[in-house]
Amino acid sequence: MPRNSRCAAILGCMALTATLAGCSSLTPSSAGGDGDLVLRVQGMPPATDKPGVALFKKQVADFEKANPGIKVKGSTTVFDPLTFSAKLSGGNVEDVIKVPLTEPQRLIQQKQVQPITGQLKEWEHFKEFNPQVLQPLTDSAGDVYGVPQNPYAQGLVYNRELFEKAGLDPDRPPTTWEEVRTAAKRISDSTGKAGFVHESKDNQGGWQLTMLSYAFGGELEKEQGGKYTATLTGEPTKKGLRLLKDMRWKDDSLGKTLLNNQNDVIKQFAAGQVGMFMGSPGTYRLAKMQFGMENTDAFGVAPMPQSGGDATLTGGDIYMVPKSADKKHAAAAVEWLTFAYAKPQYSTDMAAEQAKALSADPKSAVGVPTLPVFDKKRQTEIDAAIKPYVNVKLRNFKPYIDGLSTLKLKPEPPFQAQKLYTALDPVVQAVLTKRDADIDSLLASAEKDVNAKLAADQK
């Protein structure tokens, strides 16, 4: 997932924890004033996320009480693909790092993170993890290297109010990309708003093109003999770009602002200016809390439309232990990962406690669905535990929940996905801004460029 998307917080009906993001400087330290071990952890929320800050502080206090001799020092550092590798190689990172799902396989292959299987298996509920969410964090020998938080699957976010104004049924959102195109034109023609918006900068154009490619049945990367190569010139990817080109130049349904990142799109959506975009249910929280969406009843989300494919891109935040953490800090880090991220997504008591605390803030969003981190039985119990505190309109998420089970969950390209996205951003921008953009040559050039970089990374 692109770096700006790290702020796309999800507070889940299916898995509830605080989503923590921001940025801060790293101040190395190994012991507290009284000789305590100081554990530096990424994932502390920014000051603007008051419910999240309060929850994080309580987690820290509870953890320190349960683990005397360990002091937790939170960091609001966020993943930046431009600087992350250098910091990690130099050991200038915290003892717990937070990365998007694009990174674990690369970090595992390059031996920049530590396996945590042995200590994690000591937790009695380890075997109840959903295998789908652990698979991207596991090496070929079966060792696990991280703990997921709020895994999600991408879908189609839409404005129910604009649907009604355009004569569309908000309870029956598009299920194919041909239907998306038709609905986008109707919304644009009827309301003057952008019928559909595709992100196009800050690596997010490539990220969303990946979603489109999956929906048309494509792949953007293949593995053979332990080596990865980019496959950007496949017909499904071209079909996705042709769709965007037609919507832009034939239908004029993509709006007037064509160079957008995720925050730009959600801000416009929150203001009622966008009919549809690709996003997860968790974008509800950003629309409401960060961009002040007043008419939250207009928020709707459906499964990812399909036109030849049967998959949707999945992602989430992953917490890992870097190679630079010594034995004591690594052991403390796994204790923190289990306490702060695994247990709250498993324990009905902790889930209910956190939901109650968060629901006290009128700006919070409790009950937004995410993918289950544990088995179905446990998830049903979690849902029941937080039900009294849910403050979102679950009816508006029903199309997504009902339809998600019909799709395969497909992770982002496993090796150096950010480099693919960087190369694809200009391709998307060209299609959106140049009527005569040559899709075939643009993709061929991008594929050549990416494969040269991937080859250098795998020497």
UniProtKB/TrEMBL annotation:
Any Pfam family hit: SBP_bac_1
Stretch forming the signal peptide: 1-23
Keyword terms, alphabetized: Signal
InterPro entries the record matches: Bact_solute-bd_prot1, SBP
The protein's name in its UniProt record: ABC-type glycerol-3-phosphate transport system, substrate-binding protein
Organism: Streptomyces atratus
